Amino acid sequence: MGHFEGKTAIVTGGAMGLGGATVERFAAEGANVVIADVNTEAATTLAKQLGGTTIHLPLDVRDPKAWAEVVAETEKRFGTVDILVNNAGVVDTGPFEEWTAERIQRLLDVNLLGVFHGIQAVLPGMKRAGGGSIVNIGSAGALEGFPQMSGYGASKWAVRGFSKIVALELGQYGIRVNSIHPGQFQTPMTSQVTFSTDHVALNRLGQPDEVADVVLFLAGDASRFITGADVSVDGGQTAGNAAYQGVPE
Ligand SMILES: NC(=O)c1ccc[n+]([C@@H]2O[C@H](COP(=O)([O-])OP(=O)(O)OC[C@H]3O[C@@H](n4cnc5c(N)ncnc54)[C@H](O)[C@@H]3O)[C@@H](O)[C@H]2O)c1
Fold first, then answer.
1. By its UniProt entry, which Pfam families does this protein fall under (predicted)?
2. Which of 40, 62, 153, 169 has an alpha carbon 20 to 30 Å from 147's alpha carbon atom?
3. How many other C-beta atoms can be found within 10 angstroms of the C-beta atom of residue 172?
4. Which residue's CA lies nearest to atom 14 of ligand 1?
5. Domain that holds residue 184
6. Which of 189, 197, 207 is the best mutation target for the ligand 1 pocket, counting ligand atoms within 8 Å of the beta carbon and taking the most?
7. What pLDDT, on a 0 to 100 scale, did the predictor assign at position 248?
8. Is 152 annotated as catalytic?
9. What pLDDT is stored for residue 241 in this prediction?
10. Nearest to 184 by CA among 160, 203, 164, 156
11. Collapsing DSSP states into helix, strand and coil, what is residue 120?
């Protein structure tokens, strides 16, 4: 019997990449899984491939009305939403002087407000049920400053701070809120990026299931006393200044 038998999880952006790996792990552990994604084709394909109680429901995380429909349909099919993984995200990079307010707004709309709408949507059900676990996906870019990432970094630092504040407020209902901060992973989002692992202590890229494993830990009972935490899953990329090789004089 899987660790998540009888539990229901919504994973945004679950059609591919880190979210796809997370959907697969939940499904393997017996959960009912909702792949909530704008990419209907990829999400339907994954849901079919996994079968069982993994389904796709179309969702643009920026749309509170669509969120209400996804949660209502999930509750109708499976009962209460026990777990929400706010993983959907978009990226944009470039020199600070070229950024526009519109580009920053787009990142905030998906990466931050998408998380906000998601938590608001599942909250009444989780309160009724007496608890739940919410996992928000940030970025190593929310733990340190990375050049050319002003808009993306701002949205992810916001998710990290938001997670802590919401954790403080929802603890009284037995609802836990934690954030995960991935380092470098080859996914459709980063297909054009050439990564360097020089400053990664473990000297390699991460595998998507290495994020999924941590999501499942934070979603499940093994982490029942953890809330408001931010967990880096980056092979030590943000542990310190790995470029520094000297001995202090
Ligand atoms: N890949 C990395 O190295 C990396 C590093 C740090 C953080 N992250 C974060 O991890 C998360 C997943 O990243 P990924 O690399 O798997 O990305 P990806 O682009 O490979 O997959 C993202 C998924 O989100 C969906 N999506 C995008 N906008 C959406 C919206 N408005 N509503 C619903 N779904 C939407 C896409 O359709 C896609 O299925 C993101 O939040 C990203 O910022 C990724």
1. adh_short_C2
2. 62
3. 8
4. 17
5. 8-233
6. 189
7. 64
8. yes
9. 76
10. 203
11. helix
Whether 224 is covered by a domain: the verdict is yes
User: What residue owns the CA closest to ligand 1's atom 7?
Assistant: 139
Looking at the 3D structure of the chain, how many domains does it have? 1
The fraction of the chain above a pLDDT of 90, given in percent, is 94
Pocket test of ligand 1: the residue of 10, 18, 113, 149 to mutate, having most ligand atoms within 8 Å of its CB, is 18
Which residue's CA lies nearest to atom 2 of ligand 1? 185
Confidence of residue 243 (pLDDT cuts 50, 70, 90): low
Express each pLDDT in 60-117 by its tens digit. 999 999 999 999 999 999 999 999 999 999 999 999 999 999 999 999 999 999 999 9
Domain-located, residue 239:
no
Residue 137 CA to ligand 1 center (angstroms) comes to: 9
∠81-185-156 over CA atoms, to 5°?
A: 60
What pLDDT, on a 0 to 100 scale, did the predictor assign at position 153? 98
Kindly state whether residue 29 falls inside one of the protein's structural domains: yes
Question: Do 9 and 70 form a contact (C-beta atoms < 8 A)?
Answer: no
Instruction: Give the CATH number of the domain where residue 34 resides.
Output: 3.40.50.720
pLDDT at residue number 245: 67
Cα separation, 132 vs 50, whole angstroms: 24
**Which stretches within 1-134 are classed as H helix?**
17-28, 40-50, 64-78, 101-107, 114-129
**What whole-number distance in Å separates Cα of residue 152 and Cα of residue 92?**
6
Q: Is the CB of 16 under 6 A from ligand 1?
A: yes
Determine the distance separating the centroid of ligand 1 and the alpha carbon of 246, expressed in angstroms.
Answer: 37
